[in-house]
Amino acid sequence: MREEIVTAALDQFHRRGYHAAAVKDITDAAGVPKGSFYNHFDSKEDLAVVVLERYGASRRLEDLADPGTPPLDRLRAHFAFLRDDVVRHGYQRGCLYGNFGAEIVDHMDTVRDAVRGSFETWAGLVEATLAEAQRTGAIRAGLDPAVTAGFLLNAWEGTLIRARTDRSPAAFEAFLTTVFDTLLAPA
Amino acid sequence: MREEIVTAALDQFHRRGYHAAAVKDITDAAGVPKGSFYNHFDSKEDLAVVVLERYGASRRLEDLADPGTPPLDRLRAHFAFLRDDVVRHGYQRGCLYGNFGAEIVDHMDTVRDAVRGSFETWAGLVEATLAEAQRTGAIRAGLDPAVTAGFLLNAWEGTLIRARTDRSPAAFEAFLTTVFDTLLAPA
């Protein structure tokens, strides 16, 4: 029953947002009695933290560390995978990290800690990929991999917001062109 | 009374989010009876569109077109102004365009149109600034001003999410360093 609640909550939070999805909406979607919710979770906020973990596991971050593919190709494929997921859902949903970051981190410290940790894990993998690409001369020599990794993730989160607002791939194209053809390109 | 509602709604939406701020919270904050709301607005969504206009007027976009300052200096000052506003509010609130873009544009077409229009106006001013900087050789020659302007705004919106999540200026520093020292820097 706990699993069903987490699965329904991921869909509801991702599609509608944290505040728009009430506990009753989530238990209804899960097909469980509302009263059962508090047998499994201390609060909706507690559920949000579990949902973030579940969401993180769906993002194929492990592909960023695949030794069988050149690092710059892995990075391109990573953003293409994330883009395709948004396009397939009709430019809705976006990234749960960014959505929670925009909607609720100011008010909920446990969610804020979970989002921050998610960004750090993700940024660490991108940083390692950039450092590897830099050692092989595939990206610009002078870039700081840690600073650039953070910048890329942040730029990606804003790109998602714009793609959803426009319901268009233009923001994704601007990201990929600007990042891979100019920012990362060896001088 | 309409003005008081708009002022209170801008504060409530910006600080708490669209769904977290109920109409009654807004009318209470404005010091007006809840029943008066629908004398002035057709819906909460209608109010959100008016609030976006009011918010846009506070962002000093006109400074981007100031002929007395070199274009690249204007662009730096613009992002520094926006950053300082977020830091002064304790890394809370962020940008109302991005917040609405993350929380509600998927579900409300009139708000989506208003956010899209706000981004387009802003991007047009940044594009003109970049084109002017490019003509004077102050930025990289090969960049497309329209694509780059879109990318910068999107990157900025994600930067705000990260700065709020971390309650730290690191995301702002990564944005300013990466954009001005590498991306825009003449080759």
Automatic annotation (TrEMBL), chains A, B:
Keywords tagged on the record: DNA-binding, Transcription, Transcription regulation
DNA-binding region: 22-41
Top-level lineage group: Bacteria
GO molecular function: DNA binding
Pfam families named in the record: TetR_C_13, TetR_N
Keyword Glycoprotein: no
Domain HTH tetR-type: 1-59
Gene3D superfamilies per UniProt: Tetracycline Repressor, domain 2
Name of the molecule in the record: Transcriptional regulator AcuR
